[in-house]
Amino acid sequence: MTNELHVLDKEGLESDFIQQPQAAETLFVNEFIDGILDPSQEMLGPVKDGGTIIANTTPGCWGPMLTPTIRGGHEVTKPVFVEGAEVGDAIVIKIKSIQVTSMATSSGHDEPITDRFIGDPFVSVKCPGCGKLHPSTVVKGIGPQAIRCSTCDTDTAPFNMTNGYTMAFDHKGHIGVTVGREGARRIALDAKNYMRTPENSIQNPVVALAPSDIVGVMARMRPFLGQLGTTPSKAMPDSHNAGDFGSFLIGAPHEYAFTQDELDLHRTDGHMDISRVREGATIICPVKVPGGGIYIGDMHAMQGDGEIAGHTTDVAGIVQLQVHVLKKVALEGPVLLPNEEDLPYTAKPFTKEEKRRARELAEEFGVKQIEEALPVSIVGTGKTLNEATDNAIRRASKLFELPESEVLNRATITGSIEIGRHPGVVTATFQVPKTILKKVRIFKTVKKQYD
């Protein structure tokens, strides 16, 4: 559906019209990119400011890592243009629901195979047989050597799974259990059905590898999005849109090489792997390209802080988001508003009784006013966890116009530093005064999350 914009000529006569796409109240997304987030590429939409995005997302890391034609390490949705979002604004993304559709998946710790890539096994895969870059592949049989080059039939997966497992999920989405060799084989022989891979996905299903090193482990499911954010202002691989994985791009021997300054300027840190980015949470994302370009992917069935194995349970699923534009809220990276139960104990909103006791104590010592404050989590990324923490503190200091030393104190006594992904994604969470939240134009969003 379009709007017609009529144009007048010199005599004031109607001479032409331009077709303008009409923004959708609800936009359904089932298209994916080849792993490169490119601001010059056409986006889906637009979706209305205040509208809803519903997406069928593909599994994240391992499937794309086993598919050399996907050049970013992940297979995320095609970005969505949000009506009214301009560079220097922010977009509020409320996660209304997340539903796992996969019935099983496989995962494990990875080891790159040195003769099968140039510089970066996520971005520039080379067939060890014919030498072709980004070769197309087919799945032949099951097991570690199932991913074969379409040209020369050589085993061409750029990663080994040094210790892996196959996990089945209960139909209610509550529990996962790792299965043995026969169970893994059964799942591998019907791979796409068990993984429920979306029809437009091109990834090779990881369950085809049929790993079963760990058997009989039970795990609670609590799905979240490892990738949720806005498009960077320079083309980059999707899994590298963060300070830690992005460091692989610095001086890289391929066309997506960056300098450190370029990476800091252009990235939007959409690849967070923070387990608190789940149903009920809110993310405030920077707008660095017109329309923002919201993209989604890398859903996980469960994960502990750190994703210390490098990978977790990648699944397909259905996501519903509501988006809203915040004008003139310039951010360097995301701001996370987790569910209250996911906040550190010291950062949780205060109860009426706690506030009453604080006022009594303040009066005893002559303090005339107690701060009204609410919790905010500032995402920071970097090559290491220390660098990521420094990045989060600097971002908080700049956004709230507070000395870094004050941010450190507030994060110590009213919050916490929590790990999203090892080696370099953290959140700096602390209580921020209401007056400051109003000044930076995010008070209403924060209040709505925790009121």
TrEMBL record:
Any one GO molecular-function label of the UniProt entry: formamidase activity
Sections of the chain in a coiled coil: none
Domain of life of the native organism: Bacteria
Keywords of this entry: Hydrolase
Annotated Pfam families: FmdA_AmdA
EC number(s) on file: 3.5.1.49
Catalytic class of the enzyme: hydrolase
Protein name (Swiss-Prot/TrEMBL): Acetamidase/formamidase
